[in-house]
Design a protein that fits this description.
This protein has 319 residues and is α+β, with helices and mostly antiparallel strands. It has one domain. The chain contains 13 helices and 9 strands. The strands form 3 sheets. A 4-stranded antiparallel β-sheet has the order 1-2-8-5, sandwiched between helices. A 3-stranded mixed β-sheet has the order 4-3-9, covered by helices on one side. Strands 6-7 form a two-stranded antiparallel sheet. The longest helix has 17 residues. The chain binds iron/sulfur cluster (SF4) (2 copies). The site of one iron/sulfur cluster (SF4) has 12 residues, from α7 and α10.
């Protein structure tokens, strides 16, 4: 009975600030592990074919071998019984850089600005569970798959997860909880109905990574695989493909499921001419002037500054 009250309290508090969630039993992780392994055996992820792409090997070997995610919940939180999966609304941010008196606006995708929101959520969940004599701990799990299977989200043709009321402007997070909260419906992964007649993301993808008759995108063609890693960006990726400081927003920006929701773009203060020059000349965040570093920190770019520096240089590179 108490667990019904705990769940109701958490969901009421979180819903009031726009966060949506679902609960599943930790035992569902067996299904998640099976789904991930199926990726390898079904041929949808083929390490052999992509053996010359270090980024592909690095990312998918870790996923398939079970090293990327941690399914041993008792090791993380002793007595873990439930998993709370949450979708937190997060707009795309736009930041300006000044070059020769002109402002160049560049986008930062939703899931790269989550430090402050994550910290608040973490504090809220831990203290709320604590008042009922229980614990919560952040879990390192395949979040999109978990969200879709729990009923919280649906996949788009672009393999991104969509949540009612947010579209894909969100970040996902999951927590182990050491009590058996009432569960939501576990189901097979589903794709949004609208995707069956829509091809907008496919046509808007600069690298043609989205294939009409495939369930998963061609990861080896997706910009995200390259500009979120330190390895050299391959030559076949043209300058005009780059569209964000990190990651890529092209398959989301014109998606009808996102166009329904307003106010999803937040504009941050622009870096002036001197700061923009400084950023282009400085590879390490620690070597930036204090004023520029503060902005980088506030914009939550500091942790991946080395990638941002490389990606931004590519975006503004002279032909
Ligand atoms: S753009 Fe169309 S096909 Fe692509 S995810 Fe959105 S609704 Fe689905
Ligand atoms: S993230 Fe970019 S490159 Fe990857 S599928 Fe979407 S549009 Fe294509």
């Amino acid at each position: 009975m108490q667990t019904t009250i705990i769940k109701a309290k958490i969901f009421e508090d979180l819903n009031s600030i726009g966060i949506k969630g679902a609960v599943v039993s930790v035992e569902r992780l067996q299904d998640i592990e099976t789904d991930i392994l199926h990726l390898a055996t079904s041929g949808e992820v083929d390490l052999e074919i992509n053996k010359d792409i270090p980024q592909y090997q690095y990312r998918y070997e870790k996923i398939i071998s079970g090293k990327k995610y941690k399914y041993d919940y008792n090791n993380d939180l002793k007595g873990a019984k439930s998993i709370l999966i949450l979708a937190v609304p997060m707009p795309v941010h736009q930041v300006g850089f000044t070059i020769n008196g002109n402002t160049i606006d560049v986008l930062i995708p939703s899931d790269f600005m989550q430090r402050n929101a994550s910290k608040e959520l973490d504090e809220y969940l831990k203290s709320t569970l604590n008042t009922y004599g229980h614990k919560a701990l952040k879990a390192k799990l395949p979040l999109k798959l978990l969200a879709v299977r729990s009923g919280l989200a649906e996949y788009g043709r672009n393999n991104i997860s969509y949540v009612e009321g947010m579209g894909s402007r969100l970040f996902l997070t999951a927590y182990y909880v050491d009590c058996q909260l009432p569960e939501d419906n576990w189901r097979e992964p589903v794709r949004m109905n609208l995707c069956s007649t829509c091809r907008i993301c496919m046509n808007n993808c600069p690298t043609k990574a989205i294939i009409d008759n495939k369930r998963v995108i061609l990861a080896e063609r997706c910009l995200v695989l390259y500009n979120e890693f330190e390895d050299d960006i391959p030559n076949w990726i043209k300058k005009e493909y780059h569209n964000a400081l990190i990651g890529c927003v092209k398959c989301e920006e014109k998606c009808p499921m996102n166009l329904r929701y307003k106010n999803q773009l937040v504009t941050l203060s622009t870096f002036n001419e001197e700061q923009t020059k400084e950023i282009l000349q400085t590879k390490n965040a620690d070597d930036l002037s204090l004023e520029t570093y503060k902005m980088i920190y506030d914009y939550e770019i500091n942790e991946y500054y080395h990638l941002f520096h490389r990606n931004f240089s590519l975006l503004v590179k002279e032909d």
